[in-house]
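Same chain as my last thread, 85 residues:
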Amino acid sequence: MTNTSASAGLQKINELKNELTELAEDLNRVEYTCTTQEHELKTLSDHMCDLNSLKESVKASGKYIKSLFYFTINVILVAFITGSH
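reply #2:
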């Protein structure tokens, strides 16, 4: 092998090494982005569970308040009809 072809081979190896280093850096950035997005999705999922739980609590409270309202109206009507007001 001549000095020229050896030099060209080393240059090609260095170019490939630099490309590989850039690819590894890109891969690390993509991996970091995926990890970050995974964490954000988990946080959003947790908040959705909290919101769904809150929604169900509000719904149950609304039903309870509605039943108390109707009960109170019935008591008032019975008292009015029976004259015990």
